[in-house]
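Throughout this review, each integer encodes one residue's backbone shape. One record appears below.

===
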Amino acid sequence: MKTIIHATDFSKNAITALKYAYAFSEKINASLWVVNIFDANRLSSNLNEPYPFSKKELKTQKVLKIKQLCIDHLGSNFLEKKIHIEAIENSSVVNGIISKTDELYASLIITGMKGKSDLKDFLMGNTTKILIEKAPCPVLAIPEKAVFNNIDTIVYASDFEQEDISAIYRIVEITKKFNTKIKIIHVSTKKENNAEEQMQWFKEMLEQKVSYKNIEYALFYSDDVFNFLKIYLTEKNADWVAMLERKKKGLVNKLFHSDLVKKMKDQSDVPLISFNEFNYSRKHK
């Protein structure tokens, strides 16, 4: 992994994510881009008089604001590190982030889980939800109180399907410097048949594709997947929880992925790394 993007709206939640992104990028020796997406036309329309700055001048002001943010929270020597800052003018926050991600061929996007700026030009919560669905690389959503120390344990919530294998491969790539323990779990409803057979098939398939030994597998039964998972993450002292966002139909897939991913993003105290089924096979810089 060489390039990480952190998108900021200057909110308290985004500051937490900035600190986390900085510490993580330093640990893995990755280049960090701190970007802010702004819509100059909308900012102008919110005022009672014509906006006094051109788009170029506004971009310069935003860059200075990002720079000051980094100085305040990362230290005055941050420019000596592998950190880049950029203000990007785009009417869509999501499109602005994705465009920069494509340009840099970035490996990871890091955002805060919630929060919004006083100008309301960046709704982090809604943006993160859409990024999870559309981003060309994994999205790591950071809770308000998270602090990066290490990545000792990741819990991957799986449906034991083919698509999970490539996502787990990417997790191994991202965290290989940490010798992270990856706990692959499936929370099955009592109505689900052949869950144990599915787990054994998945284990055999994964071992053919991923040569990483520090992986454990577990199968649980619960009708309340969300609350079970929250308790499990606490018990295992998980550093990240990982999920794959899917578009497939079906009760189990809908419960275990689309709805659950978003609920975990909104309410979990553990950083959530989310893949979608369109980005996991992409090769990254």
Remarks:
- The chain has a mean pLDDT of 81.
- Residues 55-74 form the longest helix (20 residues).
- DSSP finds nine helices and ten strands in the chain.
- The chain has two domains: 3-142, 153-276.
